[in-house]
Amino acid sequence: MTGRPLLTVDTGNPTPPYEQLRRQLAELIQSAALAPGDRLPPLRQLAADLGLAVGTVARTYRELESAGLVSSRRGGGTRVLATAPSLSDSERQRLLRHHARAFIQQATLLGADKQQILSAITQALAT
Amino acid sequence: MAGALVLAAGACLAAAVAAAAWLAHARSPGTVPVDGPAVPAAVRQTAGFRLAGVIAGLAAGGAAAGQDALGRGLLLAGPVFGLCVLAGVVAGEISVRPAGGRTRTAAVEVRRVRDYLPRGLAAAVTSAAAVLAALAAATTATAGPDDLGRAGRVLLLSCGPDAQQTYGPWPGSFYTVPLAAVVAAGLITGGGALRVVIRRARTGADADTVAADDALRRRAARTITGACGILVALPLAGVCLVSAGALLSLSCRPAWFTYAGWALLALLILAVALMSWCAAVLLAPARAAARPAR
Fold first, then answer.
1. CA distance B79 to B47
2. Phi and psi for A98 in degrees, rounded to 5?
3. Which residue among A19, A95, B163, B240 is buried most deeply as judged by most CB within 10 Å?
């Protein structure tokens, strides 16, 4: 059960938890980390794992459904749609740079220099 | 014949306990990673509640066994024990708290009951439940009232135009109706308990914690399956023993009664074997398979 994509919610972040989840799931779907037909975790399971209200996760799933990324069926769970729009190369590059900048910002706050940041990335890639 | 039945029941129970003790003793060590430092609190909590359920089940089952001089209590002792164990497992799982803190992490995964169930034991328990249902339906359909007018307590056999033989106890509606209610309640509770095990929050998201958490869930699912097994196998053994005794005791029985009686005794051995297996699972839950859930 390891090796699956991870979702993180920061309850101290001013962005509402449902929106944090929506962004991460949308990215996972558009980058094909979640393939068409893949099932999202059941509402209650994900809500319990993240310590959120079921309604919060339900709102995330509704937003994703409205955006045409997933489809919910009674008894069949919520699955990624085959017609979900995928990221263009330029959009993928833009997101990669965005996440890299966010990581560098956090690492700098920890007092790491350029060499230490590169070393951390190399180590993370190796595991 | 009644004395022989009691002797046989005692021998079966002793065999089951001895086999369970041997199986528990023979378990291979170190197959479960839940004893590591990753989820010690959850391990302690669930083990404590599970043990409390087993102890409460032994007390309640023992009390139930002595309740009815006509044998209904004895028949219901197994299901009562199983229900108490299930309650202990559910209480333990509910007591597990998710990892708190400002930042929470969860994997995009779908946890399914079949990923955690011990397949062989679950198949055996399901088969035993189906056999018990079929056997109880057959014995209920062929039962009649006893000399005090209590419906479904004896087997009636016509031995000629004017002769009739009766033999009791026979697992008719007098026994099978309360048995069906308790077993059905137990199996439904078992299904609900499995859902609780699957749905409860992860104790963390790093690989070691997830592996330990999965092992903890497999252990709980194994205990639930074992409790359901006792819940089904003990009454099945009782019904087999009493039915076989009745079929083989009637002097004017047709030939097929003899074959059916011996077939029921063979089934009794299988039920006792299943009881031993389930008792070993309950006594040695740490034998949860190291097989990773998919």
1. 21
2. -60, -45
3. B240
Domain count, chain A: 2
Instruction: Supply the DSSP symbol for A72.
Output: E
> CA-CA distance, B94 to B197, in Å (whole number)?
8
Choose among A10, A45, A51: nearest Cβ to B199.
A45
In a domain, A31, yes or no: yes
Tell whether A6 is covered by a domain. Answer: no
Is residue A11 domain-resident? no
Q: Do A1 and B205 touch (CB under 8 A)?
A: no
Select the residue from B94, B104, B197 to test the A interface by mutation, using most A Cβ atoms within 10 A.
B104
Please give the model's pTM, rounded to 2 decimal places. Answer: 0.76
Residues A94 and A118 in one domain: yes
> Are A94 and A63 in the same domain?
no
Which of A45, A69, A79 would best serve as a mutation to test chain B binding (most B beta carbons within 10 A)? Answer: A45
Range of the domain at A55: 17-80
A66: in domain: yes
Per-residue pLDDT of chain B (294 residues; tens, 9 = 90+): 444 444 455 555 555 555 554 554 444 333 444 444 446 777 788 888 888 998 999 999 999 888 877 888 888 888 899 899 899 888 888 887 776 778 888 989 999 999 999 999 999 999 999 999 999 999 999 888 887 888 888 888 888 777 888 887 899 999 999 999 999 999 999 999 999 889 888 877 778 888 888 988 998 899 899 999 999 999 999 999 999 999 998 888 888 999 999 999 999 999 999 999 998 988 776 554 444 444
> What tokens were used for B186?
């137990």
Q: How far is B159 from chain A (nearest CA, A)?
A: 56
Instruction: From chain B, pick out residues whose CB is under 8 angstroms from the CB of A45.
Output: 110-111, 198-199
Contacts of A42 in chain B (CB under 8 A): 110, 199
Q: How far is A118 from chain B (nearest CA, A)?
A: 23
Q: What is the DSSP string of B219-282?
A: HHHHHHHHHHHHHHHHHHHHHHHHHHHHHHH-TT--HHHHHHHHHHHHHHHHHHHHHHHHHHHH
Q: Which CATH number characterizes residue A36's domain?
A: 1.10.10.10
